[in-house]
Design a protein that fits this description.
15 helices, 2 domains, globular, Rossmann fold
Length: about 400
């Protein structure tokens, strides 16, 4: 089969799109194309891990992206004549409908609860956020019925669509990326790791303030990896008292992330209680668990069920730096229990939260869609023969 994944927003090496979906499909023996924005110096076509990557222009300006990038995505996508197209951005919905009108199978992937996300977008005037959110929900539902299937990144997002046409493909960890924890990590200087977008909404101010509250003699460091959102936020964070105890590693490759977590004693994910996060399943949480780290997570109902249910860490009020610091101290003061939490988390990933099982669901979903299309085509041919 020929599969084609399309994005106009995400980086070509996006963890969900390339690292998980495209590479898994290619490893299963399929022909896989990925149309994605690349820098101007990138080659127009290259092959990585048996995935054919087609570069389209990258534009940060939203209007230029909609008017310019999308036309390149459409031309490249249609020229590939894939058996099934998998779309990853709301702005690609018109392209999906055009592909569908030309007889192709099309799947749309909802990475986020976009209507909820819109209500927290700072670049949309406050008075317009609610009506834009409602309009986005209606347009998504209407467009979704024009596609062959819907993929949702979480079970919560999947509840918005018919179970007969939607499958939840969770962003769980790829276990092969994270070897079992090294005994040397428990004897090294204690480090607490956070990997991901670095923004106020993701709780970075509270994390840095918390690390400043720990006794200086403990020599605890906060490892940060990722990009600042917006870039000006870096200067704000560097002015906080706890920054002197931060090790900032910048943007890390997947291999570098695995090595960084191998240095840490604790993984932290204390996102603020924005609507878009309450029912999310951040991949970093499962990656910490896969790396055998005890976790400190925001006390959201879904996250609490995972962390406390698996007994793999502690949940805290993400707005309370004192509570975050106290959780760090509890885990550092009881290394044996922290190690047991880490082992329980890794075992839970092996049993319930690994990508390999999610890919099996995705492969079956694709096959159901393609099989249905074949049967519909055969039925149409029979009707033509009878009428002829």
């Amino acid at each position: 089969m020929i599969y084609c994944h399309l994005t106009s927003v995400h980086a070509w090496d996006d963890t969900r799109i390339f690292m998980k979906m495209c590479r898994s499909l290619a490893a299963a023996g399929h022909t896989v194309h990925l149309v994605a924005p690349r820098p101007p110096e990138a080659p127009p076509l290259e092959v990585r891990d048996n995935v054919h990557i087609h570069a389209v222009p990258r534009h940060t300006n939203r209007w230029r992206r909609v008017t310019h990038t999308l036309s390149h995505v459409w031309r490249r996508a249609y020229s590939l004549q894939a058996d099934l197209y998998h779309l990853h951005d709301p702005e690609l919905m018109p392209i999906g409908l055009r592909l569908k009108a030309r007889g192709h199978c099309v799947v749309f992937d909802f990475h986020e609860d976009f209507p909820s996300q819109i209500r927290s977008k700072h670049w949309i005037p406050r008075g317009l956020r609610l009506p834009v959110s409602v309009a986005a929900g209606w347009s998504e539902n209407l467009a979704a019925w024009g596609f062959d299937g819907i993929v949702a990144a979480t079970p919560h997002i999947a509840t918005r669509f018919s179970p007969a046409r939607c499958v939840a493909i969770n962003n769980f960890a790829r276990l092969e990326e994270f070897p079992p924890p090294s005994p040397a990590a428990s004897t090294a200087s204690p480090r607490v790791a956070y990997v991901g977008g670095l923004s106020a909404e993701r709780g970075l101010k509270e994390m840095v303030d918390a690390i400043a509250l720990l006794p200086p003699e403990r020599s605890v460091r906060l490892l940060l990896a990722g990009r600042f959102i917006p870039p000006a936020f870096e200067a704000d964070l560097r002015r906080r008292r706890g920054w002197e105890r931060v090790e900032y590693r910048g943007y890390c490759t997947r291999e570098e992330v695995a090595r960084l977590l191998g240095e840490a004693r604790i993984g932290i994910c204390t996102l603020r209680p924005a609507a878009r996060y309450l029912d999310s399943q951040p991949v970093k949480l499962f990656e910490y668990m896969a790396a055998g780290l005890p976790v400190i997570a925001s006390d959201f109902a879904l996250w609490r069920n995972i962390v406390e249910g698996e007994r793999c860490g502690l949940v805290v009020n993400p707005m309370d730096s004192v509570a975050i610091a106290r959780a760090m101290e509890m885990l550092l003061n009881d290394p044996r229990e922290a190690e047991r939490m880490g082992h329980r988390g890794r075992r839970a990933v092996c049993d319930r939260y690994q990508w390999e099982s999610e890919f099996g669901k995705l492969a079956r979903f694709y096959e159901e869609i393609l099989s249905g299309a074949r049967h519909a085509g055969e039925a149409g041919e029979r009707r033509q023969c009878v009428s002829g």
